Fold these 2 entries.
Entry 1:
Amino acid sequence: MPFIKLESVTKTYFIEEQKIDAVKNLSLDIKRGEFISIVGHSGSGKTTLLSMLGGIANPTSGAIIHNGVNICSLTDESLSEHRCQKIGFMFQFSSLLQMLTVKENVLVPLLFKTEGVTTDDLDRAVDLLKKVGLEDKLKAFPSQLSGGQQRRVAIARSFINDPELILADEPTGDLDEETEAEMMGLFDSMNKERNMTFVMVTHNSDLANRASRRFRMTNGIIKEL
Amino acid sequence: MAHFSLSIFAFKNLRRKPLRTAILSLSIALLVAVTVFSISFVTRINASINKATERLGADILIVPAGSRGAAEDVLLESKSKSFFMDKSLIDKVKEIKGIDVLTYQTYLVTLTGKCCDVPDAVIVAFDQDTDFIIAPWLKEKLKRKLKKGEAVVGSESAFNIDVGLMEVDSVLFGNVFKMVGVLDKTGTGLDTAIFVSDENMPDIIKSGQSEIKPNQISLMFAKVKSGYDSSKVAGKIEDSIIEVDTIARKDIGKAMIDALKDINRIFLITITLACILSTFLAWSVFSAIANERAKEVGIMRALGAKESHITKLFLTEVVIIGAIGSLAGVAGGTALSIVLAKGFTILKNLSVDLNIIQRSIISVVGLCAGTGICVSGALFPLRRLKKMEPLSVIKED
Ligand SMILES: Nc1ncnc2c1ncn2[C@@H]1O[C@H](COP(=O)(O)OP(=O)(O)OP(=O)(O)O)[C@@H](O)[C@H]1O
Ligand SMILES: [Mg+2]
């Protein structure tokens, strides 16, 4: 049984009368520990696909089976728990909470676990921030950071709950080459050492080529490269 | 130990837009203050009437026809008023079935510089043979009956007349009285009165300085025999003797409460309007907050927050805002009720103040009302916030 199985997943949006198939009849198997990259033109449906994989958008039709569970039929409560325990999101859009410091932002996903934030978690948050090179910004607020620094906080945050699936939407969008390489190194080690499965959207073909499987999306249709 | 939790997060959220939060808190505070003040006002009047009724210890008051209000003014509010009826009515009342014991009193109003050398007060002449009203009060203080030419003063008059430790002489209606003591506070309107024995009446009348005519009294107090209903006996008295009106025990203070009905209505309207306004204000503030935080909530939902987490986060903040406002309101309302008590004639003359327990209950009511209104204004915005699809709001900028 594959780790994740997409069965003819379609997501249709309507703008006025116009029907837009953001993702069209997409079927795909993902194995545990794979590193998948997706490239594609703007508007081809990459973010939509990632959102459905992570359970923050529901397919119009089709099923997404994660470890044998069809997440599309989960209740809102179970789906939230699923996201909390198994998914790490790196959003395409800025996504830090403005009222919280860098360190607190990294801890946010743990607020929603039953056990809450523990002392160990604090250490792990600092550790992750070290890994993304922000150990000197623990107490800073998002508005005091550069775009690339904010992006790296979001990267650290996605690892805090030790998820089995990382959904990265252009995670290195506003990073310089050197930092980008460091982040890719971090992804690789998380992927190899902790067996995290990655699905990463990128516009950078060099990065895409480092993945174990590569895909291209065009108008909602996916093709393996 | 919580290093970081949803509650801490909620506290941090409070610091956003402090002015808007303060205005909402302030409006809740005003609402609660008005509520606390109104309830205190009404409770205090009721408590005073109950205490006075209890201390008077009579089942029925029998007053000259048309003098119910005046009698209550004297007995509950310490107003100086006099009213008279014929003494022969006593025997008529005694004949009514169900009357157990009966005593009478005569009220004379002093006029400073005219008849008497004491400030304005009511002089109460009571019949020591039948009396059951003043005797228990006297027993606590004097431990004997009053002799002719002696007087005791109510607790509130004491410092006006300057008695206390020393015995002093005063002229009342042309007669010299020795002030032999001060009564403890009774909680009735008679706390400002001066008490003398009925034996002095002939001399007082003789002096001609009072409006009273011979063989007149002001009112009677009656107790009914056990097994008789005081309201029914009172009704019977009124039916058979047209010269008198009666007030049964449970109706004492009714005239006063009736007079307060309009004030009560104004309180009620004010509170209702304030509630509606505050709810709308809370609703609009929390709607704005919900809009501002839609994206954040979307992000938190994507990161694993359940609807219940969003509820907890949002409501913690709402309850804190409501509670701060309500606390300020309770403090303000209580202070107002204490300060304004001195300005309202009706309250100034009431002797009973609210005790700690009554004030605490009123405070809790105020707290619940204020916080409840804040929460109810937040419910719809919260519902909308919880039900949003995370993806659609995350993309907002
Ligand atoms: N809420 C929505 N309502 C209507 N149409 C939408 C909505 N969200 C996305 N779409 C449409 O779905 C299509 C796919 O959008 P999506 O965000 O998945 O693209 P993308 O591949 O991530 O693009 P980009 O590289 O620019 O981020 C687009 O044509 C977009 O207009
Ligand atoms: Mg996208």
Entry 2:
Amino acid sequence: MTDLTILEERFQAKIDAELKIEPKDWMPEKYRKNLIRQISQHAHSEVVGMLPEGNWITRAPSLRRKAILLAKVQDEAGHGLYLYSAAETLGTSREQTIDDLLSGKAKYSSIFNYPTLTWADIGAVGWLVDGAAIMNQVMLCRTSYGPYARAMVRICKEESFHQRQGYEIMAVLANGTPEQKEMAQDALNRWWWPSLMMFGPTDANSPHSAESMKWKIKRQSNDELRQIFIDRTVQQAEVIGLSVPDPALKWNEATQHYDWGTIDWSEFNNVVAGNGPCNKERMVARNKAHDEGAWVREAALAYAAKKLKRKAA
Amino acid sequence: MSQQEALFTYCLRQADDLLILSHRLSEWCGHGPVLEEDIALTNRALDHIGEARNLLTYAGQVEGKGRTEDDLAFLRAERQFVNTKLVEQPNGDYAFTIARSFLFDAYHLPLAEALTKSSDAQLAAIAGKAVKEAQYHLRHSSDWLKRFGDGTEESHRRAQAALDGLWTFTGELFVQDDLHQGLVKAGVAPDLIAIKASFDETVDNVLAEATLKRPVDGFMASGGRQGKHGENMGFILAEIQYLQRAYPGAKW
Ligand SMILES: [Fe+2]
Ligand SMILES: [Fe+2]
């Protein structure tokens, strides 16, 4: 046996024994790469996700809603920070990770390439988008890489508040005036299918899945998580009197799950390829913030260096 | 003007400063120069809106006509807002945003401290909650002003330009009209001469450390406290009030 195989076997044994992998531990290069890709994508999603929601802060319909939305978007920025730090433990700098986003090399969740057109979209995003993200994130609290799992535990505590505030917005609208109800239904119609796409390709078409499962980076498959989400969310929609825009949706007594229609994967691929409604705007906004912030970051560095020099003198 | 009307207006003056500044800061959300500053600005926006809500709710109680915080925030027109012109100024670059907050913080902290001793128990309680936040805000804006002033040539130039541009709006913070003087006599509001002295000390100390020049007092803009704002104000309110105006009476 070569040294490498021995290391790999030990690594797998650790994972099988549910022990966490820590930054200083030996790990296969592909495990490291896979994690860097996943964690940085996740970090970018938190940050880009601030844009569609930030879009409504100044127009929130009550001071209470405004404060809640501010707090939520602030949480998302915090999540971005935890995750950039988690990615750094794998030996990639935050600057490099962010540059990859800005150059278009790194991806973020496609869901944030859809626009928030009305106030109800803020409800739909919290309810459905955070709701779908939570499914993934709860699973990731048990992921095999220690820093990622610990970041997720902190994040999950905040995410359930995000989902609840979104659902509450929808519930109030659905029980409000006819115009408000229409606004809520329209938002659900537009966000439903993109939310289902958030779980990623079907298991049969998921390129990274098998390895991620073996290494316990992922612990449940895309399709499993998607089904749990559907089962839960359809019932929540019923409670507030909104209808899920899927004519094939039907409770299946035998499987104890909902049967449902099919995702339009051509739309998904199109958005991933950069042709969603807001891909360009999102990248322009991130690049603009970064470019216009350059002199600010330079000033902070220059000042810190001067201070250090004065201390030494 | 009765004492009750004076107190109502006094609450609105403070609340409107905080509400409009919070609005301006929240425009940065998602567009900050670094993620940490996105968080810091959102945090400020949240603190300001929290204090504004307490003040608006209290104003509604003082007025006694059943108006809520939302009625006062979303259903007053331009001429009924009594914030200073300082806080309504557009964000500009990051130096401008920081300098605007710094000038406000240097006024807001001693004001909040003094109001904790107000003869009005409710105002004192609201200020009591705000003092700690205001201390943090002033530290944050002072630190950045020092970084800009004593950072690079470019940051120095931008910070000085921001201060020079904003200075004309600082006078209005300290104007004591009859309404204010009446409240000072009643022990409700602090004498703004003392607040100005504290403001001057903070400004001088921080600018000295930042190697920035204190602008010379020249023409001081006014009118905000009388509801005579800049042209920006209508757009701010159009944005804030859009949903409440478009769907009258709806609950959110
Ligand atoms: Fe998040
Ligand atoms: Fe979230």
